[in-house]
Design brief:
The chain has about 240 residues and is an alpha+beta fold. The protein has two domains: about 1-135, no CATH class; about 145-240, no CATH class. Helices cover about 40% and strands about 20% of the residues. The chain contains ten helices and ten strands. The protein has helices at about 35-50, 55-60, 65-75, 75-95, 115-125, 140-145, 170-180, 190-195, 210-220, 235-240, and strands at about 1-5, 15-20, 100-105, 110-115, 130-135, 150, 160-165, 185, 205-210, 225-235. The strands form two sheets. The protein has a five-stranded mixed beta sheet, covered by helices on one side. Strand 3 (about 100-105) and strand 4 form a beta hairpin. Helix 4 (about 75-95) packs antiparallel against helix 5 (about 115-125). The longest helix has 17 residues, at about 35-50. The model is unreliable at about 240-243 (pLDDT under 50).
Length: about 240
């Protein structure tokens, strides 16, 4: 089943569209090493053509990652063929330089670009289910003009959404500051507990009231703060003409 969900900010501050799919071969696309992916796909194709029984004794002779050999042994032949064809479609899509991919264990792949037509075409040509994440057409120009923008469904009480990076740890003093200044900084209770214990908080987010507070937070956190998203409510851009 092919589905679509709306997004309200750019991926990696650059891409408007993301297509998430599952496939037993998609690990070959990690880091977008297309030469390796091409070689792996050729090997898989040769194996499928010469060994329709998917005999484990035969599969182990092929130079493929262990997880692919395992998946081949535990997946029906007809399904492996369809997974291969989907992987081939993904490979052709990634030939475009203005694309990016992210692989997540064990077999999840998301591809990104800024071309609605081409990524919709890819989704339509896939045999297995996928989810397309895309902004409303009326949001596109605004998001591309302000990469750090995030559109929200209601008028925000806080103007900025901040993310910790991988260096964020031992932030007990910042936790105390957040408690004392709860009117200007919003931190989820669970995150606050983690901050007080000094644990790593990479990828976690919190909200800041305005630009003045944001500057103070940046001074306190230094290189421990990562992305900062500006939150914007505007029903014109959120829903376009859909009210």
């Amino acid at each position: 089943m092919q589905t679509q969900k709306r997004v309200t900010s750019l991926y990696y501050n650059k891409y408007m569209f993301g297509l998430k799919v599952d496939n037993i071969f998609f690990g070959i696309f990690r880091n977008k090493k297309l030469r390796y992916a091409r070689s792996a796909l050729d090997t898989i194709n040769n194996l499928l053509e010469t060994n329709p029984e998917l005999d484990p004794k035969y599969i182990k002779n092929y130079d493929l990652p262990s997880y692919i050999r395992y998946n081949l042994q535990n997946t029906p032949y007809w399904k492996c063929n369809l997974y291969y064809l989907d992987a081939l479609n993904i490979f052709n899509f990634l030939q475009d330089e203005d694309t990016k991919c992210r692989v997540e264990y064990p077999c999840h792949l998301t591809v990104y670009n800024n071309n609605r037509k081409s990524i919709q075409s890819l989704q339509n040509n896939l045999r297995f289910s996928s989810t397309l994440y895309a902004p409303h057409v009326d949001d596109e120009k605004l998001l591309l003009s302000e990469p750090n923008l995030e559109l929200v469904l209601t008028k925000p009480a806080y103007k900025y959404k901040c993310y910790f990076n991988s260096k964020a740890r031992r932030l007990q003093s910042f936790a105390d500051y957040c408690v004392k200044n709860h009117e200007n900084i919003k931190v989820a209770p669970r995150l606050l507990k983690i901050l007080k214990k000094g644990y790593i908080v990479d990828g976690q987010s919190f909200y800041v009231k305005n630009e003045k507070v944001l500057m103070l937070v940046k001074l306190m956190l230094g290189d421990k703060i990562g992305r900062v998203k500006k939150l914007l409510f505007n029903d014109k851009y959120i829903y376009g003409n859909e009210q």
